[in-house]
Amino acid sequence: MIPTSFDYARATSLDDALAKLGASGGSAKLLAGGHSLIPLMKLRLSEPTTLIDIARIPGLAGIKEKDGKIEIGAATTHHAVASSALLREKCAALVETAETIGDPQVRNRGTLGGSLAHADPAADYPAVLLALDAEIHIKGKGGWRAVKASDFFQGLFTVDLQPDEIIAGVHVKPQKAAAYAKLHQRASHFAIVGVAAALEVSGGSISAARVGLTGASTHAMRLSNVEAALAGKPLSDATIAAAAAVAGDGLDDLNSDIHASAEYRRSMIKVFTKRALETAKARA
Ligand SMILES: Cc1cc2nc3c(=O)[nH]c(=O)nc-3n(C[C@H](O)[C@H](O)[C@H](O)COP(=O)(O)OP(=O)(O)OC[C@H]3O[C@@H](n4cnc5c(N)ncnc54)[C@H](O)[C@@H]3O)c2cc1C
After folding, report:
1. Distance between CA 284 and CA 269 in Å, rounded?
2. Which pTM value belongs to this model?
3. Average pLDDT score over residue span 169-191
4. Residues 240-262 pLDDT 10s
5. Are the beta carbons of 141 and 64 closer than 8 angstroms?
6. Beta bridge partners of 16
């Protein structure tokens, strides 16, 4: 199918994009990489009257370190994340996440901000942003606000973002002891189960752990029982095996679809939690 007709406008700044969004009275949509929105428009599941292109807003794409944090602009493509030397050195989990998204065409066009706003339940970034305790920076007509990843992902295609707001970027602290592991759908590479783990290690013990899960349920979430099984324990293979063994327990709303049953997903959550934790441990 082809989309319904629409107007196209290119925003020159965040404020320009906000003004254009406001003027549309809710009928316009932001366009970043177009790799989630355009398919929806072709199916006529989304029928915006205007597309406001934010992909070329100066400064909205890019990765830099500032005041001890890494800032990634919303219009940064998956390819730019995957090929960032800064991230490879300081936060390899983000690089390995971006590397596994879709195919080269998807990675060349798709953006971090678009992925977060769209919030596909099988998207990869949400798990790793939960594990990295990332902050999502958002601009609206009322000004700026920052939302923790743990508060951002709220439900099926539902995030803490209003239609008249724009994600400007994501801030993460450098984190070497972190990793992402996923079982991917063979055609699209979306996560059937994706697990990201980040470990804070001090004197051979795990002082804190964060584990994010995607692909398995309506939205990405932290695995608090796994985190509790890791905190305060020695950083060892035995600790990891014991923690991974409880991953997925207690989740009663796991997806069951043509790709995998809920029970298969539950088994794979344990497998991929173990893999993510083992890689994070090796990087500690
Ligand atoms: C074949 C294929 C395979 C894929 N495989 C994977 C995969 O393996 N893993 C994965 O995670 N994803 C995958 N994707 C999704 C891909 O990562 C998309 O690029 C991403 O979900 C959306 O990013 P985008 O920049 O293309 O956003 P767009 O499609 O342009 O926009 C998506 C939505 O977000 C809104 N939006 C965009 N930017 C902003 C912003 N800065 N602030 C507020 N709202 C905004 C838009 O208005 C729209 O509603 C795949 C997509 C395709 C087509």
Report:
1. 22
2. 0.97
3. 97
4. 999 999 999 999 999 999 999 99
5. no
6. none
- Nearest CA among 85, 37, 33 for reference residue 60: 33
Q: How many Cα atoms within 13 Å fall on the side-chain side of residue 209?
A: 32
User: What per-residue confidence (pLDDT) applies to 17?
Assistant: 98
DSSP character string of 102-170: S-HHHHHH-BHHHHHHH--TT-SHHHHHHHTT-EEEEEETTEEEEEEHHHHEEETTEES--TT-EEEEE
Q: Which atom of ligand 1 is nearest the CA belonging to 111?
A: 25
φ/ψ (deg, to 5) at 146 = -120, 135
Question: What is the Cα–Cα distance from 168 to 146, expressed in whole angstroms?
Answer: 10
- CA-wise closest residue to 170 among 211, 137, 219: 137
Is the per-residue pLDDT at 7 higher than 90?
Answer: yes
In this structure, which residue's CA is closest to atom 11 in ligand 1? 123
**pLDDT of residue 1 exceeding 90:** no
Q: How many other CB atoms are found less than 10 A from the CB of residue 251?
A: 17
Tell me 255's DSSP state.
-
pLDDT digits (tens, 9 = 90+) for 57-103: 999 999 999 999 999 999 999 999 999 999 999 999 999 999 999 99
Q: Is the pLDDT of residue 14 over 90?
A: yes
Residues 6+ apart with CB under 8 A from 67: none
CB distance 202 to 137 below 8 Å: no
Binding-site residues, ligand 1, Cβ < 6 A: 29-37, 39, 54, 74, 101-102, 106, 109-111, 113-115, 117-118, 120, 123-124, 166-167, 188-190
Question: Which residue among 42, 57, 111, 136 is best mutated to probe the pocket of ligand 1, counting the most ligand atoms within 8 A of its Cβ?
Answer: 111
